[in-house]
Design brief:
Layout: E1 3-5, E2 13-16, E3 21-26, E4 32-38, E5 45-50, E6 52-53, E7 58-64, E8 71-77, E9 80-81, E10 86-87, E11 102-103, E12 132-134, E13 155-158, H1 160-164, H2 184-193, E14 197-200, H3 210-213, H4 242-253, E15 257-262, H5 279-287, E16 290-291, E17 294-298, H6 313-328, E18 334-337, E19 345-346, E20 349-350, H7 355-362, E21 370-373, E22 393-395, H8 397-408, H9 414-421, H10 425-428, E23 438-440, H11 450-453, H12 489-507, E24 512-516, H13 551-564, E25 582-587, H14 596-599, E26 606-613, E27 618-625, E28 631-634, E29 645-649, E30 655-657, E31 660-663, E32 667-674
Parallel strand pairs: 13-14, 13-24, 14-15, 15-18, 18-21, 21-22, 22-23, 23-24
Antiparallel strand pairs: 1-7, 2-3, 3-7, 4-5, 4-8, 6-7, 8-12, 9-10, 11-12, 16-17, 19-20, 25-26, 26-27, 27-32, 28-31, 29-32, 30-31
Family: Belongs to the glycosyl hydrolase 13 family.
Domain Glycosyl hydrolase family 13 catalytic: 168-563
Organism: Pseudoalteromonas holothuriae
């Protein structure tokens, strides 16, 4: 027989205590809140117990005896006035915002909607279509973390399912699951590339939007969060959330960090016409932003219907508690924040001193993890690249676009290219941040793959069912002479070379390199630059028996090995003229310093520069030629050796005559000058 009494209002969620299970949920304007307990199937409600109101708007209840694994949800009753933003409705079973585990599937139905007039959908009970919160007790993560410094970090961005769904050396039962990421075959591949850090697309529990499911599609990427604490159950092989801990521990033992792509800017409850699943039914006004004096109109800075109100103390606490949970309990090493500008915006706009940023800075758990911002959103003043404070790092889309435009052959790109490969000092140095603040990338999950960047001039998103109207139009891409798949050897060769050019630029730029999974395998999405809803071979990497022998895979290995031997790329500060150790020389084709007017020649589409490390007595000479004509290049005087030695090139051969070389069209070259010779992959 179950017993109950008033419980503690801290911590929020369900907590195992000596007497039983303590439940606490924040619903300050509710008139009553009930805890609903379900049988082990989740289909039958076996008890409904009224909770007790505490000071500050937290409702609590201690239930005993109650075992681990018990299923539950909440029902909050009170004023129901959608036009006033009040959505209390005892007919709607609500997920605990602090659920650490979920049981059952979410099913779309009319029963979830709460915005319709009383007497219609608002009176329908949605419990049958809702997953149930689950009482769990996980111990703190006890593994040893790699703690890779930013200076040595190489990020590999991948999707849990897509990375291994077709991997022939991984057991079928594990393919596409979290545990597959720690399988020896996958780890071996990461280690062989030199990857230090996995960045996983969203792994928080998420659901597919109804407009997708009606078309037979799903939200493959996962940017539609249902709960901020629970791992997405479809990624677990055994439905046991401890799998997540075990996977992290295995990756850590291999020396690989894990960063989570997290979505704290909106939730799956969407806008006014969206479902009531959790936060809406507990404290709609507090958890979501609404237009001043229009409480029924959600601010939509995300483009997804709602925006989390991070200014509210309990919304802020929810996010911070979630972050700490993933670090302390699950063991992750950091986070990449989707649409991060939203998290630092108040009613007056973006604020680099926002409470959220300041709280993380002083938090004893969060201040030491890796923090990466996607520094833009669609809200007012949403583009904030370079505005986040240290120790934040930021996705640098200006780097991406500049490198793409240069290698496509656009006019007048040279001055900006020099800034980007040198660490983007114009973006980060103004607030005492260094080049390692820049997360450099050519492609990511969002947009063309590296192979498609050189195969398509236009997006081909017809499979998404939106008449090819979705996806970004400014891709700065090229098709190398034929749109899409080609069997022409000349086009195939050029596409491979252009990918190598981009990769060489990426790994020999100052900043933190990020590679999108599949780039090393020539992975194509068929020209779809918004494959968020394609849970199929468009996104699943095509692993082959000869996977480790792929041309691009070998090339990346060589690039990483070369990068690791030059301290200029790990140096935490920008290189200036008064630097005693490092110097950078920008050169023209005569091997002489670039003249001011040459920087602004619109048709100058080649860049040559030399990085010198006086302490280690090493130098790199890097040549990029994006033009359609060869460039005769005179070598500068070798710095530490008798002559320049070719280290890497995107081409097969060149006319190299003593102190000069003919740099072939659309190619990149790296030469070394060292006192005792250099070794690389």
């Amino acid at each position: 027989m179950l017993n109950s009494r008033p419980g503690s209002c801290r911590p929020l969620g369900s907590t195992i205590v000596e007497e039983g299970v303590n439940f606490a949920v924040y619903a300050p304007a509710a008139k009553s809140v009930c805890l609903c307990l379900f049988d082990s199937s989740g289909h039958t409600e076996v008890a409904r117990i009224e909770m007790y109101m505490n000071e500050g708007g937290v409702w609590s209840l201690l239930v005993y005896p109650l075992p681990v694994g018990s299923l539950y949800g909440y029902r909050a009753d009170g004023d129901y006035a959608p036009q006033k933003g009040k959505l209390f409705n005892a007919n709607k079973l609500l997920l605990d915002p602090y659920s650490k585990d979920l049981h059952g599937e979410f099913t779309w139905s009319e029963r979830h909607f709460c915005h319709m007039p009383v007497g219609k959908l608002s009176q329908l009970d949605n419990a049958i279509d809702m997953p149930k919160s689950k009482v769990v007790a996980l111990r703190k993560y006890d593994g040893k973390k790699p703690n890779v410094p930013w200076s040595k970090t190489f990020i590999y961005e991948c999707h849990v399912k897509g990375a291994t769904a077709r991997h022939p050396e991984i057991p079928r039962s594990l393919r596409g699951k979290l545990k597959a990421l720690a399988e020896p075959a996958f780890v071996k591949h990461l280690k062989s590339l030199g990857v230090t850090t996995l960045e996983l697309l969203p792994v928080h529990a998420f659901v597919s939007e109804q407009f997708l499911t009606t078309k037979g599609l799903t939200n493959y990427w996962g940017y539609n969060t249902l709960n901020f604490f629970t791992p997405h159950k479809a990624y677990l092989a055994s439905d046991d959330i401890s799998e997540f801990q075990a996977t992290i521990k295995a990756l850590h033992q291999a020396g690989i960090e894990v960063i989570l792509d997290v979505v704290y800017n909106h939730t799956a409850e969407a806008g006014v016409d969206g479902p009531t699943l959790s936060l809406k039914g507990l404290n709609n006004h507090g958890y979501y932003r609404s237009i001043l004096n229009q409480p029924d109109v959600y601010i939509n800075d995300t483009g997804c219907g709602n925006t989390l109100n991070i200014d509210d103390p309990f919304a802020l606490t929810l996010v911070l508690d979630s972050l700490r949970y993933w670090v302390e309990i699950m063991g992750v090493d950091g986070f990449r924040f989707d649409l991060a500008s939203i998290l630092a915006r108040n009613i007056n706009g973006f604020n680099r001193y926002h409470t959220f940023l300041q709280t993380i800075m002083q938090d004893p758990i969060l201040q030491d993890v890796k923090l990466i911002a996607e520094p833009w959103d669609i809200g007012p003043g949403g583009y904030q690249l370079g505005a986040f404070p240290a120790p934040w790092r930021e996705w640098n889309d200006k780097y991406r676009d500049t490198v793409r435009r240069f290698w496509r052959g656009d006019d007048g790109v040279l001055p900006e290219l020099a800034k980007r490969v040198h660490g983007s000092h114009d973006l980060f140095e103004h607030n005492l941040r260094g080049p390692l603040s820049s997360i450099n990338f050519i492609t990511s999950h969002d947009g063309f793959t590296l192979a498609d960047w050189v195969s398509y001039e236009n997006k081909h998103n017809e499979a998404n069912g939106e008449q090819n109207l979705d996806g970004h139009g400014a891709n700065h891409s090229m098709n190398c002479g034929q749109e899409g798949f080609s069997t022409t050897p000349k086009i195939i060769s050029l596409r491979l070379k252009m990918q190598k050019n981009a990769l060489l630029t990426l790994f020999l730029s100052k900043g933190v390199p990020m590679l999108c999974a599949g780039s090393e395998l020539d992975h194509s999405q068929g020209g779809n630059n918004n494959a968020y809803c394609q849970d199929n071979r468009s996104n699943w990497l095509a692993w082959k028996t000869s996977q480790f022998n792929h041309n691009l895979t070998f090339f990346i290995k060589e690039l990483v090995a070369l990068r690791q031997q030059f301290a200029a790329f790990t140096h935490a500060f920008f290189i200036h003229a008064n630097d005693n150790r490092f110097c950078v020389h920008w050169l023209n084709e005569q091997g002489q310093p670039m003249q001011p007017q040459q920087w602004h020649e619109q048709n100058r589409k080649w860049l040559v520069y030399m990085l010198v490390d006086n302490q280690q007595q090493k130098a790199l000479l890097i040549m990029f030629n994006a033009s359609l004509e060869p460039v005769d290049m005179t070598f500068p005087e070798p710095v530490f050796s008798q002559q320049w030695q070719l280290a890497l090139t995107s081409c097969k051969s060149a006319e190299h005559i003593e102190n000069s070389i003919s740099i072939s069209p659309q190619s990149s070259w790296v030469f070394t000058s060292v006192k005792e010779g250099i070794t690389h992959g």
